Amino acid sequence: xxxxxxxxxxxxxxxxxxxxxxxxxxxxxxxxxxxxxxxxxxxxxxxxxxxxxxxxxxxxxxxxxxxxxxxxxxxxxxxxxxxxxxxxxxxxxxxxxxxxxxxxxxxxxxxxxxxxxxxxxxxxxxxxxxxxxxxxxxxxxxxxxxxxxxxxxxxxxxxxxxxxxxxxxxxxxxxxxxxxxxxxxxxxxxxxxxxxxxxxxxxxxxxxxxxxxxxxxxxxxxxxxxxxxxxxxxxxxxxxxxxxxx
Length: 246
Ligand code: SAH
Prior knowledge:
10 helices; about 250 residues; binds S-adenosyl-L-homocysteine; Rossmann fold; alpha/beta
């Protein structure tokens, strides 16, 4: 007799990252998957819907950020914001893995936040706040500005614009991790000036060596070493339209 194992691809991939997912966590990923494909029929949330592909390209990929976070101090409750989270990536997989974090999911499109509320409710996550709005505005809200130990963002904007949108959320001493795909040397070079102006320091570009993720995925890791000047980020749309480039 065989026992049905949910999310086997994810479980096996996570193991290679040194992560042991419990049956309860795998069950949460299973629920997240089902809700994602169900809602995706009514709204455009993802182009990836195949069971195994979602496990690898969305869930496992999201969990790779764990390889670049700072070691936690004892008793520290990590505060995290996921900027442009869309359907909850990478924030929701990360908090399934680390239920003790305090997480804000920021998304500009109100429609998508309806899905987020639904999923967070279904998964019984009471450590997650969902914020509708643009990073350009939310980053000037004192509730969020320079308040996070960890800022995450996946597939939102080219790096020069992205650091303007994200580094203002990051507390001095905190860290920003951008999830990127493909050849990004040039993009990183072009973002050097923006990183510097926004109070960051490039720590490393870490490539993800997992056979499941073969399309050159990497993490751009930036430490926040100084406060960001008050005038950043500029008005909505400006960081993308007129990026600070070196
Ligand atoms: N991070 C998700 C979604 C990527 S799509 C994933 O990896 O699957 C990019 C998302 O960022 C979209 O949902 C878009 O609405 C949101 N977004 C783009 N610019 C934004 C901004 N300035 N502030 C907040 N959200 C933004």
